[in-house]
Design a protein that fits this description.
147 residues, alpha/beta, Rossmann fold, five-stranded parallel sheet, 5 strands, binds cobalamin, cobalamin binding, Cobalamin-bd_sf, GlmS
């Protein structure tokens, strides 16, 4: 089976790069083909790379509080390029203390399939992607030898 492809990056003018670097390593470790666009990646670059690589999933990171503005029109631009990856966004998605449920609703309205906060475990991200992309992990793992 070919590897499922994933694009990750930090959107807009956001310079926080540690989260996406950890995501990159966790996803590679889990068997995904990962393209890490790094920090301060324009929305248009996410769209271009997702369309050109026919990505299965697009993971957007944002920490500095301006995610909503940065992500406006992202899903429309993907659709215009006939790209339909599963989309996840995570990080510190608004400025200051916010109602988590309201933040989640807002980003779902913008088109994201899953919205995660800063407490997200990397394992949860991997599990979410596997479930959405229909990856049967049990079938991929070699049989374990019982002692
Ligand atoms: C390090 C840091 C910086 C460094 C970044 C260095 C670098 N190159 O990465 C520097 C000093 C440059 C910086 C700058 C700024 N920062 Co700063 N920074 C931090 C800090 C202390 C840690 C961030 C970090 O690396 N965390 C560790 C990683 C592993 O965690 P993470 O990024 O959250 O990622 C995890 C999850 O969020 C999640 N995740 C992240 N992305 C995604 C994406 C998906 C799809 C999924 C599923 C999950 C996921 O998974 C990761 C693993 O669990 C945080 C405070 C904090 N404790 O979070 C502030 C913080 C993010 N910064 C903040 C601010 C305000 C700024 C500045 C605006 C400050 C300023 N006035 O200049 C600038 C912004 C510059 C810019 N253009 O982006 C605020 C944001 C506030 C808000 N959103 O309301 C924070 C929260 C500090 C605070 N409490 O006020 N910062």
């Amino acid at each position: 089976m070919s590897q499922q492809s994933v694009v990750v990056g930090t959107i807009g003018s956001d310079a926080h790069v540690v989260g996406v670097t950890l995501l990159e390593h966790a996803l590679e470790e889990a068997g995904f083909d990962v393209r890490n666009l790094g920090a301060q990646t324009p929305k248009e670059t996410f769209v271009d790379v997702a369309a050109e690589t026919d990505a299965d999933a697009l993971l957007v990171s944002s920490l500095y509080g301006h995610a909503e503005q940065d992500c406006e029109g992202l899903h429309e631009a993907l659709a215009a390029r006939d790209a339909d990856p599963v989309t996840l966004i995570g990080g510190n998605l608004s400025v200051g203390q916010s109602d988590t449920a309201a933040v989640e609703r807002r980003f779902e309205q913008l088109g994201f399939d899953h919205v995660f906060d800063t407490e997200t475990e990397l394992e949860t991200v991997v599990d979410t992607l596997r479930a959405d992309l229909g990856i049967d992990e049990a079938a991929k793992e070699p049989a374990r030898i019982r002692s």
